[in-house]
UniProtKB/TrEMBL annotation:
ABC transporter domain ranges (all copies): 6-255, 319-533
Domain of life of the source: Bacteria
Any one Pfam family match given in the protein's UniProt record, by short name: ABC_tran_CTD
Spans annotated as Disordered: 538-566
Alphabetical GO biological process terms: regulation of translation; translation
Cross-referenced SMART domains: AAA (SM00382)
Protein name: ABC-F family ATP-binding cassette domain-containing protein
Entry keyword set: ATP-binding, Cytoplasm, Hydrolase, Nucleotide-binding, Protein biosynthesis, Repeat, RNA-binding, rRNA-binding, Translation regulation, tRNA-binding
Bias kind Polar residues: ranges: 538-553
PANTHER family documented for this protein: ABC TRANSPORTER ATP-BINDING SUBUNIT, ABC TRANSPORTER DOMAIN-CONTAINING PROTEIN
Length: 626
């Protein structure tokens, strides 16, 4: 029988008036791989924090095995600003890591010419032999390389948010443990890294507790799923496919129960109308029973959630791109790209992080100016751009007020039906109470969902989605996929989520080396079968940079004056500084998820910095293109 590592018994947690979970019972045994699923705000991260001892619960207990060793993907890593990537990785306290760290230190000192270290070097080498540390060191560097973490001498303080996440993921995989806890491990990873991580975890002989929106990832890795749903919980044995089958069976059973309850309630209404006003004890019991069933009906049944909205009819021309070129510094991101979008097209864009995908989207949306070539949008083309930030939301407004500001009291669907803004929000998982919640009090995932609704409510007919699956839960993604099925316009998607791409994209643009793009007709999975994804290695920063590193030289343009060159260099430094400051603030956002005043303050700072970056970039482009 497998040894139980963590046992959760009768666990309950309520925040304000919102019940996250009640009398929760489950366990994690050696080698078991369990995923927690549920909409954003359902309590997934709260439950993880409770297991880690970082969150108090209202009742119940969590019993941990005395031999439990946990390694965790830390969303908010703590590090010394002067330590390198390798220093941070080797910061663990187990004997193996200490020995490797000592060996690396002695090698470094000997390399610098320090003498008298021969005996120390011999002793630590023997200790490395005894602990089989040579293989372990190679494994560490192999994991870092597979995740795209190179130049291990770089300081942790210099890394982007995405690269910090990769380093923390590598550290979690490397640390000695028998339980690995991962919260959204595929965020910030490109497809090659995700495929590698999937294989690694599928073959890993240790217990895993996982939160992820990546459905192929879930299907391949987990053997148990815990669903949190409006204060209730459901435990399923099996992977994601089996979970879906069992969930459908459960909901069909509930639907039958609902039909019976409705029939019973109709009979009770008829009975009540026939009775005199004075009630006997037996009559009151019947009324109480009817009320209880009515409450159960509302509580247990969750309707299929779909969303459609009227969009402006597309014209003959959607968007034409001719000989487009865009560079940042000496690096060519997009080189002589020509493409004509068709009505109702579904196009996915793939490639490593930092290769130019978001730059292409910003060019399409008119947020950036090309170095050469041009884009010609149609007269009737209306762009809706769901980018990777939702910081522009008015934090002081509540959810319903905000959507009414954007779309009005009544919203017209694609079929011509008119529904209220409140009903539309319900279809996107914003229930009555949540609709009257100030945006400042929403979780990060709930804000992303609201930002998405806002984009869709404006009635675009050319929809641009930049990493839409990041921070959205599986149920919201299913609603979005259903929406896209019915959407009458053109859709362009940048995503690393294979399931989402397979579900939504009918063809792909693939970024290759030196800014070249290929067009492939077919699904993402079929593309992977014929292409090894040998794309240009990921740039040193996993977060696509908007920072111009150096000046583009162009023989057709006159040389710039020294004054202009100094101005450009000054702007580059200022943009780099602002980008770094913004990244650090974004990293801190999740730390203050429950401190709404601090969250509001940080969000406003990010907005100010983004505006400043945009202004500096426009200045840079002006000087650069003169």
């Amino acid at each position: 029988m497998d040894i139980v590592l963590v046992s959760v018994s009768k666990l309950s947690k309520t925040i304000g008036e919102k019940k996250l979970f009640s009398n929760l019972d489950f366990s994690i045994s050696e080698g078991e791989k369990l995923a927690i699923v549920g909409i954003n705000g359902s309590g997934k991260s709260t439950l993880l924090r409770a297991i880690l001892g970082k969150e108090e619960t209202d009742s119940g207990q969590i019993i941990k095995n005395n031999n439990l060793k946990i390694s965790i993907l830390d969303q908010n890593p703590v590090f010394d600003s002067n330590e390198t990537i390798l220093d941070h990785i080797y910061k663990g306290e187990n004997k193996l890591v200490k020995t490797i760290r000592k060996y690396e230190d002695i090698c470094e000192r000997m390399g610098e010419g320090e003498e008298g270290l021969d005996d120390e070097f011999t002793n630590v080498s023997l200790e490395m032999d005894r602990l089989s540390a040579w293989d372990y060191e190679g494994q560490i560097k192999s994991i870092l390389r597979e995740l795209g973490v190179e130049k291990l001498e770089r300081k942790m303080s210099e890394l982007s948010g995405g690269m910090l996440k990769k380093v923390e993921l590598a550290k979690a995989l490397i640390d000695e443990s028998n339980l690995l806890i991962l919260d959204e491990p595929t965020n910030h990873l490109d497809v090659k890294s995700i495929l590698w991580l999937e294989d690694y975890l599928a073959n890993l002989d240790k217990a895993i507790l996982l939160i992820t929106h990546d459905r192929y990832f879930l299907d391949r890795i987990v053997n148990k799923i815990l669903e949190l749903d409006r204060g209730n919980y459901f435990l399923y044995e099996g992977n994601y496919s089996i979970y879906l089958e069992r969930k459908v069976e459960r909901e069909e059973t509930l639907q039958k129960q609902e039909d019976k309850i409705k029939q019973f309630l109709k009979q009770e209404v008829k009975w009540l109308k026939r009775q005199p006003k004075a009630r006997t004890t037996k009559q009151k019991a019947r009324i109480d029973r009817a009320n209880e069933l009515q409450g159960r009906e509302k509580r247990e049944i969750q309707k299929d959630l779909e969303l459609s909205v009227a969009a402006k009819r597309q014209g003959k021309t959607i968007l034409e791109i001719h000989n487009l070129k865009k560079s940042i510094g000496e690096r060519v991101l997009i080189n002589d790209f020509t493409y004509t979008f068709k009505a109702k097209e579904r196009l996915g864009i793939i490639g490593p992080n930092g290769i130019g995908k978001s730059t292409l989207l910003n060019l399409m949306a008119g947020r950036l100016t090309p170095d050469s070539g041009y884009l010609k949008p149609g007269l009737n083309t209306k762009v809706g751009y769901f980018d990777q930030t939702s910081s522009e939301l008015p934090l002081e407004r509540n959810v319903l007020e905000y959507i009414k500001d954007v779309a009005g009291e009544m919203i017209e669907t694609e079929s011509g039906e008119k529904i209220s803004a409140s009903k539309m929000l319900e279809r996107f998982l914003f229930d009555g109470k949540l609709q009257y919640t100030p945006i400042a009090k929403l979780s990060g995932g709930e804000r992303r969902r609201l930002f998405l609704v806002q984009i869709l409510m404006t009635g675009p007919n050319f929809l641009i989605l930049d990493e839409p699956t990041n921070d959205l839960d599986i149920q919201t993604l299913s609603v979005l996929e259903s929406f896209l099925d019915e959407f009458p316009g053109t859709v362009v998607i940048v995503s690393h989520d294979r399931y989402f791409l397979d579900r939504t994209a009918e063809s792909l643009l693939i970024f290759r080396k030196e800014g070249k793009l290929d067009h492939y007709i077919g699904t993402f999975s079929s593309f992977l079968e014929v292409d090894s994804l040998e794309i240009e290695n990921e740039p040193s920063s996993s977060k696509e940079s908007t920072i111009p590193k150096t000046i583009v030289t162009n023989e057709e343009k006159p040389k710039k004056s020294k004054q202009d060159q100094k101005k450009i260099q000054s702007l580059e430094k200022e943009i780099a500084s602002l980008e770094e400051k913004k990244t650090k603030l974004e990293t801190n956002l999740s730390t203050f998820a429950n401190d709404h005043m601090e969250l509001s303050k940080i969000t406003q700072e990010i907005q100010t910095i983004e505006a400043e970056i945009l202004y500096k970039m426009e200045e840079w482009e002006k000087f650069h293109n003169e």
